[in-house]
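agent> call fold_tool(seq_1)
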Amino acid sequence: MQIAVAEGQTLSEIAASHGVSVRRLAGENGIEASSPVRVGQKLWIPRARGAPRPPAPPCRNPAVKFLRVASNEAADVVLTRCGGRADPDGQSALSRLSRSLRADETKDMHPRLLQMLQKVAEHWTGRRLLVISGYRRGRAGHESNHTRGRAIDFRVEGVSNVALRDFCRRFDAAGVGYYPNSVFVHLDVRDEGRAFWVDYSGPGEAPRYGPLRPEATASRR
């Protein structure tokens, strides 16, 4: 670290206060050990011998570009660390982007949701993930994966929802909803098993579940 010499300080006093020798302090700054110092002079302080090194910053995967469609709010979010764990700062950022559209409330998104979105981002490198809906407040007595912060409705910019649907269906312990007449794919976190459904309703309509029709089975990029 670097300090500025205060009035009345000497090189030896500064060295002693930081647990280093005068010779090391002088050598670090390219001056003689007997040199006087002046007020305001900048000195680099070497690390004291035996002092613990500061912890290395955590290794994080590259940030993923997001857009919250409802508010046109863009953000670069680090979803996971290099070992695969969800990044706490990224979890907060995604929770903010996925907040309730009506009440502007947030809820922590499930860490495994971030891990799955990381795999989506890696599969389509450089593409923005467009958030349609995440957390939303449920009716009294009604709970869903959206109300629990375990689901997100999204799409990948420039990628068909058919291709996104088929990729998300590879995830274990996850639910995938496909909406041919809407603009998103639903992805949620399950405790176990896989779930998949098709809803042919359009925006604002009551659900119309049905089998996957032949024309909607071909995966396209």
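agent> call fold_tool(seq_2)
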Amino acid sequence: MPTATAHDEPARAGERLCLVVNPRAGAGRAGRGLAELERLAAGVFPRCEIRCTDAPGQGRTLARAAAEEGFDVVAAVGGDGTCHEVVNGLMGVGLAATDRPIFTVVPIGTGSDLIRSLGIPRDTAQALAIAQRGSTRLADVGRVRCGPEDQPLDERWFINEISFGMGGEVVARVNRSSKRLGGFATFLGATVGSLASYRPQRVELRWEGPEGPGEWEGELSNAFVANGHYCGGGMFVGKGGSMFDGVLDLTVLPPMDLLTSAANLPRLYRGTAHEAPGAFRVAVTRVQARCVTAGSSLLVDADGEQPGSLPVEAQVLPGSLRMRGGWGGAG
């Protein structure tokens, strides 16, 4: 299996921190807590600035500007959607990981699944401590391009996962909701609701990976392409994988009736979904998917956002972003 360079870097004294804040994250908690965030951040980063988004997608613009202005560390303050925007902003700068600031997270959001892979706690003060002195490693990032077929493909990066099939419908439901119940309950409710309405589509998959090329065609309920470990409010779809191994983990789940789906739902949270009858998992460096049935369409989820629908192409970019986290208890 190819291995991306993954090493620890010591934190440098005098680093400049830019906090990219989504004030609407956590049902508005991020916006209401700006004064406390500023106070806590100043205690560990004397050279610190807070920049707030005021529209969807602006996190990408603010992160890119911070990179171009020479900030050493850029933190996403919000949920997984904010992380997605910030990573896309950083990846738009330079050609190598060292051309970009270090990425980290101060979690205030609904999903906040990425922080489980980064070893970052939900407590703001502890997250800021890790932003200052946690381990910095070269992490993989995914690049995704998706349709629909009659339009130019949208291209962006993902740091945690993409999925297509029922997962796209789940994210659509989540993003329409108030999210006030928190990540687990919000995503679980959306998943249960989608079980009854989702109609499986026939999909063709082709991939490349450490074991060589492969292909599959059939109906699916959902497919996950994981870089991190968790998504959907705690679904353990990347168990045993790594953000530093130069591969993505593709998991394909077959169609199931409502009762069977409900019985297998706990597998998603235990990390054993690929062990369900008819499911499989494979390590890939690149994967392509398209709907076989004419006129059919499946939504794509990328880090909790929706860039479009099938067809989709995804590949891993090994060791392309420096990330700071609490791996091994660092920080």
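agent> summarizing second result for user.
Residues 17-140+321-329 form a domain with the Rossmann fold fold (CATH 3.40.50.10330). The chain is about 30% helix and 30% strand.
agent> awaiting next instruction.
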